[in-house]
Design a protein that fits this description.
mainly alpha; 2 strands; 132 residues; extended; single chain
Length: 132
């Protein structure tokens, strides 16, 4: 039962933390929020040079020129992966759904699976050490 609770907590905590941080920050946002399909986002669509907004999602070049600091020397590597993923999602015919399935559901579940697997193996190692 302890493992089950630990495993569920590890799965839920990052999402809960993200929601808490978003809701704490939401009242401090002064720009007009971006809206599409009757959904209002937290971030603005405005081009702001010192803050990422939805324009960064829609215009990667603007974001790279104004907000990226440490990865600039590695664009030749990261752009291939980044634009490859975007291209793959677009080829599905439904970019938004593919984005959600792979980046919001499958990737976190895969990371969670490997964390749990690692913790379970460590538990087994600890049991073996106690038997000696």
């Amino acid at each position: 039962m302890k493992r089950f609770i630990r495993n569920i907590a590890i799965l839920i905590f990052p999402f809960l933390l993200m929601i808490i941080v978003n809701e704490v920050v939401r009242p401090t946002i002064m720009e007009k929020p971006y809206s599409k399909y009757e959904i209002t986002a937290m971030n603005s669509i405005d081009k702001i040079s010192d803050k990422c907004t939805w324009i960064c999602h829609n215009n990667t070049r603007f974001c790279k020129e104004n907000h990226v600091i440490f990865l600039k020397p590695y664009f030749k590597y990261t752009d291939t992966i980044y634009f490859g993923i975007i291209s793959m999602f677009q080829k599905t015919g439904n970019y938004g759904l593919a984005n959600i399935i792979f980046l919001v559901v499958l990737s976190p579940l895969l990371i969670w699976f490997f964390i749990i697997k690692s913790l379970n193996i460590q538990d087994e190692i600890n049991k073996l050490k106690k038997q000696k």
